[in-house]
Amino acid sequence: MSNITIINPRIARETQDLQTLSKEELIARIQQLESHVTQLRNLLKPKFTSAKEDKTSGSKVFDHKKYAKRHVLLQVAYIGWDYAGFVVQEHTEKTIEAELFKALEKTRLVESREMSNYHRCGRTDKGVSSFGQAVSLDLRSNLSEGKGVFVPDGHQAKIGNNDEIAYVGILNKVLPPEIRIVAWAPVSKTLSARFDCRQRTYHYYFPMANLDIQSMRLAAQYLIGEHDFRNFCKMDVGNGVIKFHRRIMDIKIEAIDNLADSYSMIRLELKGQAFLWHQVRCIVAILFLVGQGKEEAKIIQELLDVESNPRKPQYGMASEVPLNLFSCTYSDEDCQWIYDSETLRYVISGYQMLWTENMIKATMLREMLQSLEKLVGIKVEHQLKGLVQGIEPKTYLPLLKRQKCDGHLFEKFKICLKCTKPS
Fold this sequence. Notes:
single chain, alpha+beta, Alpha-Beta Plaits, 10-stranded mixed beta sheet, two-stranded antiparallel sheet, 8 helices, 12 strands, globular, PsdUridine_synth_TruA_C, EOG090X083V, RNA binding
């Protein structure tokens, strides 16, 4: 038996493959592996750092087993312009979710994300903001009974305590200024922020510019109801989304100031139970084309007719910066939000500072533009430039005459693989 060598076929094959590589190819392979190792170290670094700090500081380890837990909803507001989206990502810590859990763990409200029974209502993308994002999770509780309160196995709840932890206040003290908890609600242990949401409302803000708002309103009405929105989204087959029927309950386009000129700000409000990936931004992009007179209102009907138009024409999406997940609605029986006036004043004060900074910039630019327009003697209405992705062609080509997605179709679902989100 001593002369028997056990060979791992995979390792042997990889060694043989490496021997066939040139010097340049080997260097490239090593650099690729080093990059991968660096990525793994960055992912593990926070855990090692926090463990080291706990050991060196001599601080007493917090015992979560001395407390009950409570299943709650949190209303999370955030200005997402400088963040890489809501959801935690491997390549960056600059996400809303990462900051939220950093605050939750720092305040000892959760032991870890894995043990928190966590659900989020929506996955907002890079640059998108929210006033009413909702998350459900189990938090540490001072109580021994009450809605959403439970005592896990091995835990011992405090008896006779009538004051619940001030969840909103303590979280806002440690969150970045762009992220704030607005309210909380005790809910049943089975409630999910995602699956029990009855309605999601998005707001999209834009200047009037040269848009025909009435034509946009007319076109928008065709969107109301249940339709196949595959021509108004980016397909997300990689995450198992193969059905593209969604119901839009209402859509409104209204001015939100009294300027009544091309600088007047408009709000599009879109209500539905659920939305597809980039659905709102695609809808806004098409409505912009209608408002500019480049497409007729009936283009909405034609794109919703997936039998006649099974492949999405190529067009640029509207910018993510003006988009806001404004509210997530739950039944009154399931959720009664708790607001605290002192905490709200703190939130308002912080957001007023952000408003002041940005309003000063906008006012300064407006005055400079007014002076420039007086010099040139004509009205320039190019405020929408930059709100739609892609390069604007000199000659406009109607949507239905444009090149369609030319990738082969996934026949079972009639899905163009070229237009799907990578898995």
